[in-house]
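User: Hey, my collaborator sent me this sequence without any context and asked if I could get a structure. I don't really work with proteins. Can you help?
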Amino acid sequence: AAFARRASLIEKILPPLIFRVAQQAHDVPAGVEGESARLAQQAHAGFNATEQDYPAIVRISQLVEGMPLGIELAAVWVRTLSCEEIARELEHGLDILSVSARDLPARHRSMRAVLDRSWRLLSEEEQAVLLRLSVFCGGFRREAALRVAGANLSVLSALITKSLIRRNGSGRYDLHELIRQFTAEHFSDHLDELAETRARHGHFYLLLFGQADGRLRSSAQAEALAELTAEMDNFRAAWDWAVAHSEFALIEQALRTFSAIYDMRGWLQEGFEYLAGALEALETAHEQSPSDRMIQVALAHMLSARALLAVRLARQAEAQTMLELSLEILRPLNEPRVLVEAITFLGTEMESTSNYARAKELYAKGLQIATAIDDRWFAALCLTLVTQLASFTQPMAKPEQTHARLQSVVAEWRAVGDPRFTTLALNLLSLSASSLGRYDEARAALQECVALSRSIGDRWGSGLAYRGLGIVA
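Assistant: No problem. I've predicted the 3D structure and written it out in structure-token form, which is a compact way to encode the shape of the chain:
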């Protein structure tokens, strides 16, 4: 996210910078000194950055994170490689960031030499912690550093003082990408400890996400969504580790949060495809151990989670197939926590294909299960869906009665505290109010929708609200 915010500025600053470094070979003012001029004089390349080069140049800057020496060492390669090729080489390792200039101190001829010198100045404890910190992706918080890497406050402080990790204003820590690559290479020589650290990392983040589901569906939604979004790179790494090591119980308990985040952020296609690998691994495990209850529950839950994203992508046939299979697996099991999801999502699929009778039946069953297990969120969802379905499938129903039911739905979502679904209920209420000519009530409901949607960054909810305000106007 930080890179994205800086991208437009980088595009303006970096191409002229690399242009100047490379062009020094042709136009070096008298008396100019410093590493940039000396490195460029060795390049002997007439380099003119074009718009086609800019994305790769931005990527180069991201990979070295603006480190001047890193940019200078990368710029030298314009005589041999395209900007895109330089970026690809950087993604593979540090070796490209080196030159053979004899007039440079040895410690400045490559990033590896610079980092190696800093590495040797660390204590054994600091080296060990820095190695373990290299498993994090996209930064980390203090608790994660302690739990995963054994990094206590004194070691973190020492590494910050030595400019090997840094802390931003939000309280997150991270390693410069080049430092992370360097330490990751060293860590590969300690395979047992690397495996143990990755296991701790995987457990920590899958548990973190699994335990966040309640907050993500409550009045703390905006805060929880921001915190979890900041950890998505770590979550993806933890997820990949869990799939590779068949940690299906950890995966299953994080699925609700997975579905909610990918849906709320609009990462529908990515989420749908990302679940494919885990689903394949689960299906294989199910074939090998068909009576394993944990695998059965995880597989059924995975199918319903992927089906939700399929519904949102308008892939109805695939969604229905997955949901029917999920229910088939769940029927012999006593697992209402997962069953309520599959039944409710299948109801929305039946409604989308105009099978209103079955949709009504499924919503009623979902409401019954959710009430029995005190899952107030799914109970509110089923109540909303039942009420909405009745509003256009029961033409004899009095509009005032439908409106009263929708007011109850809004009250229930307010009690649950989920801003996103409160806006959904308010949108439905506004349509009902408009049909009754209660335009002031409709406008007030929609204005609240706008405020709630903005508070959580829900563009879909904002779009519906503004459309409703247009109808009222």
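In plain terms: The first strand starts at residue 166 and ends at 167. You can pass these tokens on to your collaborator as they are.
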